Amino acid sequence: MKAYFLDTAAGGMRLELRETPTPQPGPGQLLVRIRASSLNRGEFLGGLGASKPAGQEAAGEVVGTREKVMGRCPGGFAEYGLMEKTDAIPVPSNLSWEQAGAIPLAFLVVHDMLVAQGSLRSGEWLLVTGISSGVGVAALQAAKAIGAKVIGTSGSREKLDRLSSMGLDVAIQTRSPEFQKKVLEATGGRGADLVVNNVGGTVFAECIRSLAYQGRLATVGYLDRTMKAEIDLDALHAKRLRLFGVSNKHRTAAQRAETVRGFIADFLPHFAAGRIAPLIDRVYPFERLPEAQAYMESDAHLGKVAIRM
Fold first, then answer.
1. What is the CATH number of the domain that holds 72?
2. Is position 189 within any domain?
3. Structural domain contains residue 263
């Protein structure tokens, strides 16, 4: 079968198309004929190391049963992939393959940070920095389904205008850590109940300043490549803040499966009813995956960049 590998040993993140044997499922695994996938920026931010199968999620048909599934799928940029049964999510009939392939990672992350850890409730204020990213747009869509009000930052006025038509309540055009004042104005001086930091260390302090009493801060990305930041301990103490990270790096299979069950219970009905649909900026054919990578890294996209087999 054809599969892409990510070569991180040559000082870059180069995709290479290879011929490789079709994988064989082990206990608790499904062999999936992949129909679509999508790009996730985090995969292309790694350091130097050996080559590895590229892709992290997929949607397709289970070989033998033709059941339509979507979910985490290491090596998802391939004609076939292995998916753990606990990661497999049924695909609603109203979704295209490209839509299904663009859902799993972004919305599983969003469920983790908005629901499981962030405890976002209807009527609360959510602030998302770098809201035009795949996770940022998914956070907006999920938060509106929950009934929350959403503030988003982005350097692009055009992207913010498009997101405003999707329900973004307050749009703040900025690429610098200068948004606390507008957040406080929007929330009547209270601040945001939950902040999603997609950007990284350069805006961390401003995120802290933008939080309300008993606010929560989710750190999920570091597009600025800045991994350190100062913490205002007085604010942390006095405002009884809660800071948490969102990552699957050290989670067990059982912990990941718990998030999948939460997604199926809380979010999947919204997709099946058409209340949420992933925002796909562009769809590229499988053989043009390197072009899709270049487009994503140009930061011109809004939402997800999908791959069609």
1. 3.90.180.10
2. yes
3. no
Same domain for 115 and 222, yes or no, is yes
62 — phi, psi (to 5°)? -70, 125
Contacts of 24 (CB under 8 A, 6+ apart): 31
Dump pLDDT digits (tens) for 121-158: 999 999 999 999 999 999 999 999 999 999 999 999 99
Looking at the DSSP assignment, which residues form a beta bridge with residue 136?
A: none
Domain that holds residue 55: 2-103+278-308
Q: Do the bridges between strand 80-84 and strand 29-38 make them parallel or antiparallel, or are there none, so unpaired?
A: antiparallel
Going from the C-alpha of 123 to that of each of 46, 129, 187, the distances in angstroms are 38, 19, 11
| Tokens found for residue 214 | 């008993």
Q: Are residues 80 and 193 located together in one domain of the fold? A: no
Q: Which tokens sit at 252?
A: 């067990």
* Verdict on whether the full-model pTM lies above 0.90: yes
C-alpha–C-alpha distance, residues 143 and 81, integer Å: 31
